[in-house]
Amino acid sequence: MKVPLLDLKRQYQSVKPELDSAIMNVLAHTQFILGPDVKQFEEEAAAFCGIKHAIGVASGTDALLLALRACGVGPGDEVITSTFSFFASAGVISRLSATPVFADIDPKTYNVTADQIAKKVTSKTKAIMPVHIYGQMVDMDPLMELANSKKIPVVEDAAQAIGAKYKGKKAGTLGRFGCFSFFPSKNLGGLGDGGMVTCQSDEDAELVRKLRVHGSKPKYYHSLVGYNSRLDSLQAAALSVKLKYLESWTGGRRKRAARYNQLLAGLPFETPFEREHNFHIYHQYTVAVPKRNELRKFLTEREVGTEIYYPLPLHLQECYASLGYKEGSFPVAEKRAVEVLSLPIFPELTDEEQNFVAASVREFYRDGLPALAIN
Ligand SMILES: Cc1ncc(COP(=O)(O)O)c(C=O)c1O
Questions:
Q1: What backbone phi and psi angles, to 5 degrees, belong to 3?
Q2: Which protein residues touch ligand 1 with a CB less than 6 Å away?
């Protein structure tokens, strides 16, 4: 049996007539950039998140870039973020000529914590960017308390967390801005790149809308220098179709995660930890395991797809050598980077496939191994 990490063809088959007709509709009306589909999707996405404004942009990376720009981040500023994230979280800070300041994570959720961030706040801190990694939100109450007490804006990197909740509130609605990615493999994935910024304030929304069209309003009058970062109508039309199914797809992912937890119980490793008050959307089902690379090789031989998110924390990336971090700077993230492995999870995964993944993992550990030392 072959089990892919993700199979988007199955998702396409499940929505094919609706998706095809939405695409054909755009081809017929030809308003390809920021057309009526974008406006409609923005309204639907804002309602889904429970926030006033949703602004479609060209990618999740751009969502972060525009949100930070709107917070005034620029040369000489510092932005604090998690060292355990996709590169975009840090890259956008550097692209604004600001300095990414990294913070370590909670070993159980892999999320950055308010305590770790507090150690890094300086007079130059211009924004705090928590990353809701794998689809579970950061412990936001202490983080917002810290940020509010210092009057520092929070930009949520919710690229992996659309629909995730913290104490009943959705990802992207707690900070000044929320940033989402519609990269095809995300829980709500487009047909290419796409992203979205959410916010409550009318002025902030106006500013981000301006920034995505070269800083112009009205057209051809530029009060600031912005970007070309528009969501196109084909993406928006596809996303509108898929958004209707997102809750049920999330339910499917959660069911699969609970089933993995049972199938993998008793093995010498950690299954994902869903913190109290959190509604995890399982963008990834990530386990922390001994002999991770060997397990991955074993699963690859059995044609089970896996991935490592992420093998090297951001503070140790070559391009950030000049920032002066060393091995040992963030021990939790560094330890997790050699232990984590993401297993196949998507709503259309079958029981048989999941049984095969779990049986293969069990086979690898059949002779037993010492449990991981968890701090
Ligand atoms: C945590 C995180 N931040 C930012 C991004 C960037 O999103 P995109 O690939 O849409 O630019 C991603 C997605 O890849 C992500 O996982």
A1: -120, 110
A2: 59-61, 85-86, 88-89, 131, 157, 159-160, 181, 183, 193, 195
pLDDT tens string 226-273: 999 999 999 999 999 999 999 999 999 999 999 999 999 999 889 999
Helices (H), 50-193: 60-70, 88-95, 114-118, 140-150
Residue of 82, 111, 183 to test ligand 1 pocket, by largest number of atoms within 8 Å of CB: 183
Task: Name the one residue in this structure whose structure tokens are 């293969």.
Answer: 360
How far does the centroid of ligand 1 lie from the alpha carbon of residue 62, in Å? 9
Look up residue 33 and give its two tokens: 């950039």
> Are the CB atoms for 198 and 172 separated by under 8 Å?
yes
Rounded to two decimals, what is the model's pTM?
0.97
Tens digits of residue pLDDT in 140-197: 999 999 999 999 999 999 999 999 999 999 999 999 999 999 999 999 999 999 999 9
C-alpha–C-alpha distance, residues 209 and 226, integer Å? 10
**DSSP conformation class of 129:** E
For 300, list phi and psi in degrees, rounded to 5.
Answer: -60, -40
Evaluate whether 196 touches 56 at the Cβ level (below 8 Å).
yes
Q: Are 354 and 327 in contact (CB under 8 A)?
A: no
Q: 41 CA to middle of ligand 1, Å?
A: 20
Give residues with Cβ within 8 angstroms of 310, minimum separation 6. 84, 85, 86, 337
Angle, CA of 221, 222 and 228, to the nearest 5°: 110
Query: Could you identify the atom of ligand 1 that is nearest to the CA of residue 62?
Result: 11
- Cα gap 129→112, rounded to integer Å: 9
Find the distance separating the first CA and the last CA of the chain, reported in whole Å: 37
In whole angstroms, what is the distance from residue 66 CA to residue 165 CA? Answer: 24
User: Is 84 within 8 Å of 107 (Cβ atoms)?
Assistant: no
Contact 82, 111 (CB under 8 A): yes
- Unique residue bearing structure tokens 């950055």: 112
Q: Which atom of ligand 1 is closest in space to residue 182's alpha carbon?
A: 10
